[in-house]
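User: quick one
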Amino acid sequence: MLAGKRILLIIGGGIAAFKALELIRRLREQGATVTPVLTGAAEQFVTPLSASALAARKVYRDLFDLTDEAEMGHIELSRDADLVVVAPATADLMAKMANGLANDLASTLLMATDKRVLIAPAMNVRMWLHPANQRNLAALEGDGILRVGPDEGDMACGEYGPGRMAEPLAIVEAVVDALGDGPLRGRHVLVTSGPTHEPIDPVRYIANRSSGAQGTAIARALAALGADVTFVTGPADVPPPAGVRVVPVRTAAEMLEAVQAALPAEAAIFAAAVADWRVASATTSKLKKDGSGKPPQIEFAENPDILATVAAMKTGRPTLVVGFAAETDDVRSNATAKRQRKGCDWIVANDVSPATGIMGGTENAVTLITGDGAEDWPRMSKDMVASRLAARLAEALGK
Ligand code: CTP
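Assistant: Done. Structure below.
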């Protein structure tokens, strides 16, 4: 499954480092080449000799080893891989990654790489749950770092809870997914995201509160399943995920154009909060007060409905067209009607009343409306909603 794939395996200094040795063996069983890198602390738990013997390759250990630098610089080492795996990812390594520290070989490689990074955290349960670690985790997730585990269970330190490193076979599975050998491998999926900005004049515009968080999470989750993602995004607050084709746009009209240019796609998910109206009377010069005390008259024109346009395509329509419904009242019935009206296959409906804290927040509570009915999903993080939606999409598209 991993034939020809090159994995750079950074082994952190924790008791779980011994499982990294089995991980090397398991990755090689699948045909991968593994280049191990040991942190100074890792050497307290496993020897470079055992890592090197299992990998049948040289082990890299120290940033200032001049022979290594002459043979292969750290930049090359970090890029000469298809995926960087950090196992175990200790609290210390995660903190360094989250803050961009680069003071040893492992952290420098992690800063220098242009490849996707998968972490398998392992630490004491209190450390895992500590607000500082949770902050670092959130930062890493925002950076598009992939993660497997930790598992919950008895720990070497005698406590119980989340913090145990994922088992080597689960890490191998995550590696397979991360390398795009997932169920959506090579399949083109289009995602729209973020708000649109509709100009009033060269300095003013009409916008909405969409942060782009949900659309970004969906694009990331689809890419994690191997999809070839085109991400058409308005001016969002959150940065786009790694490993997708980003098409930045500003207005609804530009978004429609970018979407049409990106087709064909097997599936299209319209998570953008597109402005329904644009300013028909937009000016190329800044509006000035005219001294009369009367406010300017702004005329609106209806924007094209991108979702409805794509859903109505006679030829080349994506197999699965998914819309979002942002509602404040009667979520289920409004969204069911919206699915019919827009001609899409699924609607992901959410309640964006200010009291829910969903718009601009990190969580979402959605109802998935398909031809078979409505399904309420429990409130969960936008990342979880994205993973679940991506998995459903993969299932619906089939082989
Ligand atoms: N949408 C779109 N183009 C538009 C307006 C909306 O593609 N011009 C898409 C959104 O990306 C979303 C869905 O349509 O997937 C529903 O958006 P929403 O704002 O909830 O619905 P509206 O069509 O604006 O309906 P209403 O304002 O009447 O609720």
